[in-house]
Design goal:
Blueprint (H helix, E strand, L loop, with lengths): L2 E2 L9 E10 L2 E4 L1 E2 L13 E5 L4 E9 L7 E5 L13 E6 L1 H20 L4 E6 L4 E6 L6 H13 L4 E7 H6 L17 E7 L3 E4 L14 E10 L2 E8 L2
Parallel strand pairs: 1-4
Antiparallel strand pairs: 2-3, 2-8, 3-7, 5-6, 5-8, 6-7, 9-10, 10-15, 11-12, 12-13, 14-15
Helix pairs in contact: 1-2
């Protein structure tokens, strides 16, 4: 298994690690700061650097399909992997700007959830935009939602996470807002993201520490995707 350092501290940009395996899926490390694609959030990119200075560019990060609990760091096409055999010590470093964008957008989607009290049936968080698909048929106002996000950002609400048991989640089914991505089961505990006084729901993604850190985010588009789906797209102003 890969120790997921990003679960407890999303601000970590690098760590030392050991290569455990290498296969068609990518490079597996014993520990990592790289977030793998999941929960609607894109995977991290960055570099692995060996002790002798060899640099491997990582273009994506995924959960390994054949190794439960392992994270695959996907190298650039045609990369030279000779210096990264199992047992090699490396410095794993993520693209800080990409991660920061993911953190800002992911927290902004939680603010949007607080403003639109309907289940979510689709989500995508990238470095360039974020979107949520709400299960609803009422119209939404772009300017009103942008103003609501700005108000919550200006409110400087603390953002934190904690772990609850699966039994606690079962006793509070209303915590789950997503219809398409269910919290992972089988580990005995569930990670929940809390924005003080604003939102509380299961989430394994990376987030800023305070809503003020989200910065200027606005609704750029609202689409009617089906009779019961309204898509809201977010973008940065700066």
């Amino acid at each position: 298994m890969t120790e997921e350092l990003f679960r407890e501290d999303a601000t970590l940009l690098h760590c030392e690690a050991t290569v455990l395996a290498m296969d068609e899926a990518g490079i597996v490390l014993d520990r990592t700061v790289f977030y793998p694609l999941g929960g609607g959030q894109a995977g991290d990119a960055g570099t692995l650097t060996s002790a002798d200075g060899a640099v491997l560019h990582i273009t994506d990060t995924r959960k390994h399909k054949e190794r439960p609990g392992a994270i695959a760091h996907v190298p650039a096409a045609a990369a030279d992997l000779a210096a990264f055999a199992p047992g090699t010590r490396v410095l794993a470093r993520i693209d800080a700007d990409r991660r920061r964008a993911h953190m800002r957008f992911h927290t902004a989607t939680h603010l949007l959830c607080a403003l639109v009290p309907h289940p979510v049936d689709g989500c995508s968080i990238t470095a360039g935009y974020a979107r949520l698909d709400f299960h609803m048929n009422e119209p939404l106002d772009k300017d009103a939602l942008s103003a609501g996000i700005a108000r919550l950002v200006a409110g400087a609400h603390a953002v934190s996470h904690r772990w609850i048991s699966e039994e606690e989640l079962d006793a509070n089914p209303g915590l789950v807002r997503s219809m398409s991505v269910m919290p992972p089961r089988g580990l005995g505990r569930i990670r929940v993201l809390e924005i003080e006084g604003v939102d509380l729901q299961p989430c394994g993604g990376t987030h800023v520490a305070n809503t003020a850190d989200v910065g200027a985010v606005v609704v750029t588009k609202i689409e009617k995707k089906s009779a019961m789906t309204r898509r809201v797209v977010l973008g940065f102003v700066d």
